[in-house]
Amino acid sequence: MPAITADTLTLPRIPAPSAAETERTVKSITTGPRGFEGEGFPVTRAFAGVSSGDLDPFIHMDQMGEVEYAPGEPRGTDWHPHRGFETVTYIIDGRFQHQDSHGGGGLIEDGATQWMTAGSGVLHIETPPAELVESGGTFHGVQLWVNLPRKDKFLPPRYQNLEGNKVKLLSSADGGALVRVIAGSIGEHSGPGSTYTPITLAHATIQPGAQLSTPWSPDFNGLVYVLSGRGTVGAEARPIRQGQLAVLGKGDRITVTADSTQDGHRPALEVLLLGGQPIREPVFQYGPFVMNTKQEIIEALQDFQSGAFGQIPADGIRPYRGR
To answer: Which cofactor does it need (predicted)?
Structure first.
């Protein structure tokens, strides 16, 4: 799991907790079911079974892979629409091509993040490039859907390409954890992602036996998702493992500890830390549209069918299925 790595001894340290701060406790731990997305790539549905109130402002998250593809096996998605939210695609290992109907696009690979604000409506495609389809190889990533408040749902579409070397790198107080801040802030340190809905998104690698205790905005919800490995989470040190999501209660800090021994092919505990300012508005979702009312979903379908989301470019990429 390469993502972006660094020597933690050279990085700014996250301060240890003070006596006045409170640790967040665990409200629930759920295990995400496995399924398939797009043209058939494997995913873990990270938020399955969790109430929308606990997730707000997040809507959906898939862990894509981790999978070792044989030649000819990699799959993605064909062109499809979105409206009313932001998609965040973080590629930990491997590569994905992206293109949209408003001129955004590029190659996402090894620690990079593609942040697309669908806003008023966009068509886009995410698919492995031809060379990955031909050769096969490791593929691992995450796609997160971040809701937009009613006032922002019809913003013009926007695309951000956040290269892996632009994320803010931090170290835990004991030097045993590397934290990559993609968006939002941890303490005084902020990531490069620009968000309409206030959130924090970070990827942490915690070495066996090490502990990560990080400040967390008391106004944000708190979620910890395990990408790989085993450990404990929260003030009660509840056990948690790969594919599980912890929903945390209120407080000032989030604590995650890696077990002293990990599986041979999982040398460290890898987690995503997520939180945001709840929007607390009605949510009406139908497939790739996230709005506030059923009527707005009907209008989204009509606008999509009429071409209001834009057109697939003449030179638009297509899923490559091999020779």
So the answer is: Fe cation
CATH at residue 213: 2.60.120.10
What are the structure tokens assigned to 62, written together?
């898939």
Sheet holding 26-31, edge to edge: 26-31, 244-248, 222-228, 269-276, 199-206, 177-183, 168-171
80 known member of a binding site: yes
* Model pLDDT for residues 250-301, shown as the tens digit of each residue: 999 999 999 999 987 778 999 999 999 999 999 999 999 999 999 999 999 9
Q: Is 203 annotated as a binding residue?
A: no
Residue 315 domain flag: no
In the block, which residue shows the tokens 């001129």?
Answer: 103
Closest CA to 303 of 156, 103, 122: 122
d(CA 32, CA 259): 21
Which alpha helices (DSSP H) does the chain contain, by range?
Answer: 52-55, 130-135, 294-306
Structural domain includes residue 312: no
Residue 318 in domain = no
The total number of structural domains in the chain stands at 1
Domain contains 306: no
pTM metric for this prediction: 0.94
pLDDT digits (tens, 9 = 90+) for 293-318: 999 999 999 999 999 999 998 888 88
Domain encompassing residue 259: 11-301
Whether 140 has a binding-site annotation, put simply, is: no
